[in-house]
User: Which sequence fits this backbone?
């Protein structure tokens, strides 16, 4: 049985002391494909380096909304650098992690929206899918994905359990990524949201080292914990564990073309 982690951050400092050991561990746990997401120029370069040195790991490059420069000139310069990183590298399979996040600050909403749209344009130009982050920005996210066509699709990462957002994401051809939060007891409407998503649009992820699923909640996350996510999704969907693992694996291969 194989698993595909569509969103992880193994460039994170939390893996600094044992990164190679973790890679062996997750591969031995059946994780035969994994995408390391970039959040800024530095982490995107690290993601590329990790992917180039490990056959089963791929990279995405992008500018996370929390990482954007706070003036337009610097923003455009940095987005241009993201594009340069993405050109002609076979291990880069997406533009991400990109999107909107109003949780920490709301004074730069227009810059966030500009960065998001510009990176969608880069993805379209390079014929790559996108990995989308959204937090406390439901209305603006819906407006952007409705107005700006995403040519090669993408994934709404770490699915916010909001019916309207998921509805519009699906209507606009996006896949939906589920991780540790789908297993949390506090996620009251997780089952309803999971069942909104057709089987051919569902993906799994860890967001490692963050958001460990139950029963590992509170510990450092890694891709070997995908089995708990698959178990919960299979329970919600009323299908076998192996079937859910295969569905999500094939969906990810199709979206990211690997």
Assistant:
């Amino acid at each position: 049985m194989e698993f595909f982690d569509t969103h992880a951050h193994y460039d994170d400092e939390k893996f600094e002391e044992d990164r190679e050991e973790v890679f062996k561990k997750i591969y031995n746990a059946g994780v035969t494909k994994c995408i390391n997401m970039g959040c800024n120029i530095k982490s995107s370069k690290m993601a590329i380096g990790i992917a180039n040195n490990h056959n089963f790991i791929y990279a995405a490059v992008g500018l996370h909304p929390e990482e954007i420069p706070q003036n337009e000139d610097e923003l455009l310069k940095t987005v241009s650098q993201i594009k340069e990183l993405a050109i002609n590298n076979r291990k880069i399979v997406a533009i991400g992690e990109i999107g909107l996040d109003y949780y920490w600050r709301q004074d730069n909403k227009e810059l966030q929206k500009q960065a998001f749209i510009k990176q969608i344009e880069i993805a379209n130009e390079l014929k790559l899918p996108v990995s989308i982050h959204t937090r406390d920005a439901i209305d603006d996210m819906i407006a952007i994905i409705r107005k700006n066509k995403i040519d090669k699709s993408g994934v709404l990462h770490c699915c916010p359990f909001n019916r309207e957002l998921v509805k519009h994401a699906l209507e606009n051809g996006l896949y939906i990524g589920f991780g540790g939060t789908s297993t949390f007891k506090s996620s009251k409407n997780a089952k309803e949201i999971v069942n909104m998503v057709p089987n051919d649009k569902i993906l799994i992820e860890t967001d490692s080292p963050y958001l460990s699923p139950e029963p590992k909640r509170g510990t450092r996350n890694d891709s070997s914990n995908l089995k708990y996510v698959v178990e919960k999704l299979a329970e919600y969907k009323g299908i076998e564990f192996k079937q859910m693992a295969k569905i999500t694996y094939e969906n990810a291969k199709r979206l990211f073309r690997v």
Observations:
- The two ends are 17 Å apart (CA to CA).
- Residues 48 and 59 are 6 Å apart (CA to CA).
